[in-house]
Design a protein that fits this description.
The protein is of the alpha+beta class and about 280 residues long. It contains eight helices and eleven strands.
Length: about 280
């Protein structure tokens, strides 16, 4: 499918999304899928290819290791050509999620039996706090410095990417304030050579199943081994801008459909009152 065919497919789905109960949700999923296949914006041969971008990312990691800011990353399994889900455009590269992440930090829960650990000034996030579109501004619970120092939780600087690895697989946000996190969350720092919002939108496109009988989860090494389609940095920014434009149209569709439903309900109520 080329870019023109993708445009025609989107136009078709915009037409039917309004009528189908889950049409807009499916349309949003289609937008992300096409974006991550390189079919949403045209490629520019003048862009620095992802192969060169990977060299910049590796150099960044070496600098951070040398400065003592991160640990030496563990080697990731090589990607074989017969493993990849689909063919990428020229200039893109298949990598692992861990290739574009420079650090990953876990969390924990201070003892609930010690009231001096709770109700402080430090926001403490769990899965239930990640019901946000993008940015996490506040949390339901908070802890004290004593709780932070006497547990396995960590203070995560603002601007990190927070993901669920248990119970809420697929949930993701960016914290706008410093927070502590529990054991079901991981805080990721993405390379400065990768557009953070492109990473965010790709993560939303994952269908993470997880393992477990009662509660599904994904191990850290499994998370970092997920396939990640890496475009040139300039194209990443173009893709993000295009996704935002199309998602805004989806928002408009949802508003129109809500107004239509309200009118239909009002009409039905009026008719019932006449019976």
């Amino acid at each position: 499918m080329n870019e023109q065919e993708s445009r025609a497919l989107l136009e078709k789905h915009f037409d039917i999304a309004f009528a189908a109960p889950d049409g807009i949700k499916k349309l949003r999923e289609l937008i992300l899928t096409l974006a991550m296949q390189g079919k949403l914006v045209p490629q520019d041969p003048n862009d620095q290819p992802a192969s060169e971008l990977l060299k910049d990312i590796e150099a960044e990691k070496r600098r951070l290791v040398k400065a003592g800011k991160i640990r030496e990353p563990k080697p990731l399994p090589e990607i074989k050509s017969d493993e990849v889900p689909y063919e990428l455009p020229v200039g893109w590269e298949w990598v692992r999620l861990g290739d574009v992440v420079v650090s990953i930090i876990g969390g924990g829960t201070p003892s609930k039996n010690n009231p001096s650990y709770w109700g402080g000034d430090i926001p403490w996030a769990s899965v239930k706090d990640l019901n946000v579109d993008i940015y996490l501004e506040k949390t339901i619970d908070s802890i004290t410095n004593e709780g932070l120092e006497n547990s396995s939780t960590n203070l995560i600087p603002s601007g990190s990417i927070i993901v669920c690895t248990r119970m809420g697989l697929g949930k993701i946000c960016i914290n706008n304030v410093d927070i502590a996190i529990n054991q079901d969350l991981k805080a990721l720092t993405v390379s400065s050579n990768v557009d953070k919002m492109f990473f965010f939108k790709k993560y939303q496109n994952y269908d993470i199943k997880g393992q477990g009988v009662t509660v599904k989860g994904i191990r850290q090494d499994e998370l970092l081994c997920l396939f990640f389609p890496l475009p040139p940095l300039a194209e990443q920014k173009r893709i993000v801008a295009r996704i935002d434009q199309l998602m805004a149209r989806c928002d408009e569709l949802e508003t129109l459909r809500a107004e239509r439903d309200q009118k239909q309900t009002a009409l039905l109520n009026a008719l019932m009152a006449m019976i």
